[in-house]
Write a structure and sequence with these properties.
With about 190 residues, the protein is an all-alpha fold. The protein has one domain (about 55-185): Butyryl-CoA Dehydrogenase, subunit A, domain 3. It contains 8 helices and no strands. It starts with a helix and ends with a helix. The relative contact order is 0.14. It binds 2-acetamido-2-deoxy-beta-D-glucopyranose (NAG). 2-acetamido-2-deoxy-beta-D-glucopyranose binds near residues 47, 64, 65 and 68. Pfam families: PMEI (PF04043). Belongs to the PMEI family. This is Pectinesterase inhibitor domain-containing protein. It comes from Psophocarpus tetragonolobus (Winged bean). Keywords: Signal.
Length: about 190
């Protein structure tokens, strides 16, 4: 009985050790504390081989993903802006949105450069990471404002829906990146 008990204990210890020590589980446990954990795991697991179990690499990948998605959303909004037959109010809403998303791209790419400084010896980690937190948080505000701007405006139904859907999805990716950055800052 005692032997059987110890054997089970050994097995479960091994099981836990094996469960914890994979990049995928590292991603899952980090993502569990974000606001959209399923999206976080789904979008970052693809990069498990790059991320490994390195907190800096995890954050850098999440931020790069947010920048990439924001850039392609910017391209989409810019294309909608060239759509003929927009009413002046629709045009104004799109123009505001294009400016906000463009600011968001700038802030995210600045954050990515700043984040890279966090890893360098002799650099002030706390200073750089707090800049990253501030800029990503503003980028998220820009993305949310852009989506909200269409709420009451009489934009062409289909276009309005597709812009709002894209804005919501990109804001979720950025929100996740921000949570991971906050975790990284807190753990340092
Ligand atoms: C971001 O975009 C670049 C250039 O298109 C691509 O090489 C890279 O894999 C993308 N990374 C992520 C995390 O989305």
């Amino acid at each position: 009985m005692a032997t059987k008990g110890s054997f089970c204990l050994l097995l479960s210890t091994l099981y836990i050790a094996c469960t914890v020590a994979t990049p995928t589980n590292f991603i899952k446990s980090s993502c569990s504390r974000t606001q959209y954990p399923a999206l976080c795991v789904e979008s970052l697991s693809v990069y498990a081989s790059i991320i490994q179990q390195d907190p800096h690499q995890l954050v850098q990948t999440a931020l790069t993903l947010s920048l990439n998605r924001t850039e392609s959303t910017k391209a989409f909004v810019t294309k909608c802006n060239k759509f003929r037959g927009l009413k002046p109010r629709e045009y104004a809403a799109l123009k505001d949105c294009a400016e906000e998303i463009s600011d968001s791209v700038d802030r995210l790419s600045r954050s990515l450069k700043e984040l890279k400084l966090c890893k360098l010896k002799g650099e002030d980690f706390n200073w750089h990471i707090s800049n990253v937190e501030t800029w990503v948080s503003s980028a998220l505000t820009d993305e949310s404002t852009c989506g909200d701007g269409f709420a009451g405006k009489p934009l062409n139904g289909k276009m309005k829906e597709s812009i709002r859907a894209r804005m919501t999805s990109v804001a979720q990716v950025t929100s996740n990146a921000l949570s991971l950055i906050n975790q990284y800052a807190a753990q340092h």
